[in-house]
Amino acid sequence: ARSRDYAESQGATEAHLIAAGMGQGTTRLNPDWEDILKGLPEVGRVMALTRNKWAVHEKIGTFDRIMWDDERPVVLDPNINLRINLKAWAHGFAVEEQMGDRIRHSLHVYDPYGVAVIKVYLQADANVQAFRDLVEVNKADDQSRDIKIRQRASAKPPKDDGDIDARQLESDWRSMSDTHDVFALSRRFGATRVQTYRLAPEDLAREVDKDAFSRMLQTASVDGEEVMIFVASPGNVQIHIGPVHKVERRGPWQNVLDPEFNLHLMERGIASCWVITKPTMDGDITSLEIFDAEENQIAWIFGKRKPGNPQSESWRAIIEKVCPSGLVLTPA
Fold first, then answer.
1. CATH number belonging to domain 161-322
2. The pLDDT of residue 81 is above 90
3. Cα 23 from chain centroid?
4. What's the pTM?
5. Nearest-CA neighbor of 205 among 273, 271, 274, 272?
6. pLDDT grade for 329, boundaries at 50, 70 and 90
7. CB–CB of 291/300 below 8 Å?
8. Confidence band for 28, pLDDT divided at 50, 70 and 90
9. Rounded CA gap, 74 and 65, in Å?
10. Which of 267, 223, 213, 277 minimizes the C-alpha distance to 245?
11. What is the CATH code for 3-68+88-137?
């Protein structure tokens, strides 16, 4: 069983489970995240894993290019592309596990509530000694099994739709100049993301059927379209940039199973799927975004593009093929 699911079945968090292994291949690290991140390039090839309840995103590469911006560093390796929020990083552990005839080395980071932020697994050609040195330098004095996990406060109930000025929301949306402005837009109106989308006109936010994301993966694979696939945890966003090749359903999971990129998507977790159009300085940018029943974002996908460049016509064509603009999901 996956550690997240097992922890939930035991009424615990993943961080509780890993702390229980202290002294048995598990080492607690000091929360000196900048030092730890700066030591990862020496480790070489790793697999970075970022997940939430319904999606797992795995990329193989290095941490060779890290750009620092206070508590939000960015990793820009050609393969490993991360947007990190260090404010959400609370607990770090290094783990050694016997896996058949070899020892697997990994780094695990959790947020204050015990939820996994990122896991980093050394690959066969990684520099194990560099990793051990990194662990030794950042080893915490406290190697007990105790761990302080914060309890979540009750979520504030969302506003009623009628209490939100939909006309002003639309006006502000059409005035956006960057794809990230939608986060601030929702906060400004005290709305959830899905509520923001629901209140926007259909040319900006259009709900489509829940299978659209899987169809998008399959279509991008067949057409050879390069895409950007995002999955977020509480303190990290991990991005795949490039093509997808092997798209395959296995049991309840829809998967991308490529040599240096794996995506595992539990489709039953998808409660809504949206085609979203955001005005930017580079023209309109369209994404396909999926959310769970609690309105947490599971994953989202754009066509590949660089800042300063418009969205490709081929991506617009794929959006139209997968989610024709004349079709809008009718509420049940």
1. 3.40.1570.10
2. yes
3. 31
4. 0.94
5. 274
6. low
7. no
8. very high
9. 8
10. 223
11. 3.40.1570.10
